[in-house]
Amino acid sequence: MTDLYQSQRAMRRMRKAAMDRGVVAILDLGTSKISCLVLRFNGPAQFSEADGIGSMAGQSSFRVIGAGTTQSRGVCFGEINAMGETERAIRTAVQQAQKMAGVRVDHAIVCFSGARPRSYGLDGHVELQGQVVSEQDIAQALANCDVPDIGEGREVIHAHPVNFALDHRTGLTDPRDQIGNRLSVDMHLLSIGSDEVQNLLYCIKRCDLELAGLASSAYVSGRAALVEDEQELGAACIDLGGGSTGLSIFIKKHMIYADAVRMGGDHVTSDISKGLGVPMSVAERIKTFHGGVVATGMDDREMIEIGGDTGDYEHDRRTVSRAELIGIMRPRVEEMLEEVRLRLDAAGFEHLPSQKIVLTGGGSQIPGLDGLASRILGQQVRLGRPLRIQGLPQATTGPAFAGSVGLSLFAAHPQDEWWDFDMPNEVYGARTLRRTMRWFKDSW
User: Which residues form the signal peptide (predicted)?
Assistant: First the structure.
């Protein structure tokens, strides 16, 4: 992959080919679990340019025909650190989903967290001189965006046009076929570490799959957990995963900011394991069945039997009060939420018209978390479950599967991105585009 623009367009073509064939795999690569959904599309995907801004604006109905989930191995902080173990875990999840679906899949669309995401807001414009806005004008305005120096070893994963302005009118969703003198565009660009991307590409290839799309877990979780009004008026989605906590902010149905905190539910489990002197598997069971972050007067009297199989009767019959367990869990959860608050403040979240916060992901199921988050973040907080999609098994409808459901929506109803437009190279003499394209070639 030597050129970002061409490689992303190649993945778009592969996605369209997979949807035309009828089936595609959705792969959510997490720290605690790896889940796979097999989607069947009802007929060829119709990418009609009349339905939106770019070439990917068409809609396609689909249903889930297969699902598979396995414990994640070889993934830490949402990033691959043991290639062989991750490959075996991916193969296990994909084979489960293929067996349930009764078909073989060759193309996969993947989302993952981690990789140190970083957001940028860009703007560009083009002079029209009273002409009708065409698709080429939009492409030229996007190409005129002055891309910042994102640093060595980083790649762009998303580049969404989030707002168009024509002369004095702003907030346009589709400026085509309108007349004006100056077209401006605001674009949100999300970059991630290139080494993590290359490791992921290599791992998918080793699993005999073709990569047909790549997305940030924070972005797709927001699309699944936020309702339409929240995406329109402004809301933040906090995806509490196993190894990292993703954060995304939406307004006008577009993501305008994303970040990640390198802490998650596995860190709470680790604290319980160390605090009580039990294995991680026992700590996870205790957290799942008895955990919480808000203590009451009854918790001092509620005793939890730790259990064990060391052979030492006294050690294996230990008990601990639920208040002690909460005393272990709460500081770590508070630390994660404080880190999220710092990132929300840095993004200027308080300036949005609506400031709702939605918690999702497996870690959001800790009892009392929404109340604690409301006190720390100082906003309206609710727990979010992913939208229901056709054919989704009951076992995969919880908050832990927000990434998988959001990635399915991302596959079937993609939003426009910078590389969905044909760059007008033959009419483009500006120094900005040449510098931008040279920078992309050098950094990919």
Answer: none
How many angstroms separate the CA atoms of 54 and 44, rounded?
Answer: 18
The radius of gyration of the chain's CA atoms, rounded to the nearest angstrom, is 23
Tell me the pTM.
Answer: 0.87
Which structural domain range is residue 276 located in?
265-329
pLDDT in tens, 8-21: 778 788 888 888 88
Q: From CA 249, how far away is CA 269, in angstroms rounded?
A: 28
Domain CATH code at residue 439: 3.30.1490.110
Cα gap 78→88, rounded to integer Å: 16
Please, how many CA atoms are within 13 Å of residue 426, restricted to the half-sphere of its CB? 2
Round to whole Å and give the CA distance between 141 and 432: 11
Q: Which two tokens stand for residue 100?
A: 């349930």
Angstrom distance (rounded) from CA 77 to CA 433: 35
**Which CA distances in Å does 227 have to 224, 387, 431?**
8, 8, 42
Give the CA-trace dihedral at 407, 13, 40, 360, to 10 degrees: 0
